[in-house]
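Reopening this ticket.

The earlier resolution said the output was attached, but the attachment link was broken on my side. Pasting everything inline this time so it's all in one place.
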Amino acid sequence: MSLKLHEASVTLQGAPLLRDVSFEVQPGKLVGLLGPNGAGKTTAVRALLGLQPLTAGQAYLDSQPAHSLSAKQRALTVSYLPQARKLAWPISVREAVALGRFAYGGPMGRLGPADSAAVEDALSRCSLKGFEDRAVTSLSGGELARVHLARALAAQAPALIADEPTAALDPGHSYDVLAALQAQARAGQAVLVVLHDLALAARFCDEIILLNQGQRVIQAPPQEALTPPILAEVYGVNGSWHRDQLILSGRI
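Inline output:
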């Protein structure tokens, strides 16, 4: 199960948001999608899912054109954790995580054994044991972010896309989230994660896709993608590698 953009372009109201972007996420890989604000990361994710019409090029989910899939087929193929993810009604944490099983067709509130097992596993992976009966409206922003990630993990689709899953999380829980995504990749899932934290991406990702001004700069392992010259050009920062760790030392 792979995720692929091929020469994808998106233009809205005359403004080019993506220009001939190509990349691929293979099973078993945790791939970080990075770039400055406005680089086209969320547009690329939405295009990949068939949610953003392309001006040119193609988006494929496991060799199938993304736009040709029904909503249910897409949900069974890719777990999607969007950037905007509000829950306004006071359902329990367990019920919110169980929403990840909706595409499998079970009646809401009556989970089968496989559904229940998937929900329990996701709760555990996201450090939500003890929170199961809490109303989601009572949670902090960081706790709610972990609930949404658990919902995505509970879907157990062959691929997972997470758009800024560490937003509002403290460093410890950010590490936990990336470790959980890394474990999903190691289990065979194709995982694409949009990140702003370069050091976190360097620590956990197998590959980096770097976008800038709507174009792909590079797709490569972290030490090849986040070199000092590339960091200077794309982000305007000084950076270096020390013992497999990326160290940023300020603006140029």
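Reporter confirms the inline version is readable. The first helix runs from residue 41 to 48. The chain has a mean pLDDT of 91.
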